[in-house]
Amino acid sequence: MNESIKEKEFISTRRASELLGVAVSTIQLWTDDGVLNAWVTNGGHRRIALDSVEALLSKRVSGKKLSKPEESNIPANKKTLTVLLVEDDEDQIDLYRQQFEARELNVNLLEAHNGYDGLIKIGQYKPAIIITDLMMPDIDGFQMLETLKHNEALKDCLIIVVTALSLDEVENRGGLPDGVLFFTKPVVFDHLENTVLKKMLNHF
User: What is the mean pLDDT of the chain?
Assistant: First the structure.
């Protein structure tokens, strides 16, 4: 492949990060995990296939507009945790919101509707807790978690899987990264609340 073709079909990691709205480090992780197609120059620089970037952009599902943490309605004098919910079922999302509000947990609950949206929001907000389903369109929960396990910036993040799959079914699909908590649907919110509260005690 000659240099002129490369220039037309490939872009830098920084340009890819600008197009996708994520950090350069996230682009590097995505290329390592095969989420984005790339090659490495003789000088050691990544070149990202433009069509793979465009494919990710086209898959992105628009959800509800997410408020930044500082725009939350939670009183400023209360310590809060940012919690990202990655779930494609609107009824489930509403149920989570109702339960968090009813239990008066001091969390700023953000939403993503598939693994791709989840990776974008994780890069933007660096949540303290991620609650994710596994079976979702486009990039699913398995793919998202595989990418996240290489991210040192999330080493203190609590990741919780809530799925209709059995533990055996999850294991047959490759299992979960170490440290990820497993809950089955329908989730017992008393158990989930206790887990969130323990995270709060350790976080603040």
Answer: 82
pLDDT of 203 reads: 72
Topology classification of domain 69-203: Rossmann fold (3.40.50)
Q: Indicate the pTM of the whole model.
A: 0.67
- pLDDT, one tens digit per residue, over 100-115 is 888 888 889 999 999 9
Rounded distance between C-alpha atoms, residue 38 and residue 121, angstroms: 23
Give the start-to-end residue ranges of the domains of the chain.
Answer: 3-59, 69-203
Q: Which of 6-10, 73-77, 188-192 has the lowest mean pLDDT?
A: 73-77
Inter-residue contact 125 to 96 (CB < 8 Å): no
Q: Report pLDDT for 204.
A: 64
The CATH code that applies to domain 3-59 is: 1.10.1660.10
Report the candidate in 132, 148, 124, 116 with the shortest Cα–Cα distance to residue 69.
124
Q: Is 71 exposed, middle or buried (0-12, 13-18, 19+ CB in 10 A)?
A: exposed
CA distance 122 to 33: 17
Neighbours of 119 (CB within 10 A): 25
Sequential DSSP letters for 159-176:
EEEEESS-HHHHHHTT--
**What are the structure tokens assigned to 204, written together?**
């603040």
Domains 3-59 and 69-203 agree in fold = no
